[in-house]
């Protein structure tokens, strides 16, 4: 019998073409995902999403252990890349639906560039657009992407990241620190959209 809270559709692979950009987010080419993450990494466009529930708790996910970079490590609700020819906000909504089975309005928060090497396995070098949204339901997680998930109160996540930083992806740590610093009022209400 199938589990109605999960799906196992393959939604990405190493041959997906990513959008190469410069630091001003101007597109300069295309390259497959595997090559983008080789060596010191090629700067490419990315999205990162933080989903909150009605209690203001954040949905975090443990990345599937088969992932090349940071497999088995905890991260924010959803993160991925726009496809060639796809707008960044469209990619964010698409990926929330594909990975989490959720639909929500998303608020753009900020964009930043980072580089993070992962031992000998490769490097993330991304220009990442960060979004936040709010849902009332539970996710239907994609098990090819997500090993486990949980709702976590902001204060608990702060403590866990401080005590065990290696349990969390570097981009979550950077983004979460900035969200705490710049969006504390929104954080308290779980980024609910006001009418």
Structure summarized in a few sentences:
This protein is α+β, with helices and mostly antiparallel strands and 195 residues long.
Described by strand count, sense and barrel closure, the largest sheet is:
4 strands, mixed
Biggest sheet strand order reads 7-4-9-8
Helical proportion, percent range: 10-25%
Strand content: 25-35%
Secondary structure: number of strands: 11
CATH class: Alpha Beta
Note the gap between the termini.
42 Å
* Spatial shape: globular
CATH architecture: Alpha-Beta Complex
Radius of gyration: 16 Å
Whole-number total of structural domains: 1
Query: What is the structural class?
Result: alpha+beta
CATH H-tier superfamily: Nucleoside Triphosphate Pyrophosphohydrolase
Specify the oligomeric state.
single chain
Order of helices and strands: EEEHEEEEHEEEEHHH
Unreliable residue stretches: none
The CATH topology assignment is Nucleoside Triphosphate Pyrophosphohydrolase
Q: Summarize model confidence as the mean pLDDT.
A: 90
Q: Give me the number of helical elements.
A: 5
Explain what you see.
With 195 residues, the protein is of the alpha+beta class. The protein has one domain: Nucleoside Triphosphate Pyrophosphohydrolase, CATH 3.90.79.10. The chain contains five helices and eleven strands, in the order E-E-E-H-E-E-E-E-H-E-E-E-E-H-H-H. It has helices at 33-36, 88-100, 154-163, 170-182, 184-188, and strands at residues 6-7, 17-21, 27-32, 44-52, 58-63, 74-75, 78-80, 106-118, 122-134, 141-142, 146-152. The strands form four sheets. A four-stranded mixed beta sheet has the order 7-4-9-8, sandwiched between helices. Strands 6-5-11 form a three-stranded antiparallel beta sheet. A two-stranded parallel ribbon has the order 1-10. Strand 2 and strand 3 form a beta hairpin. The termini are far apart.
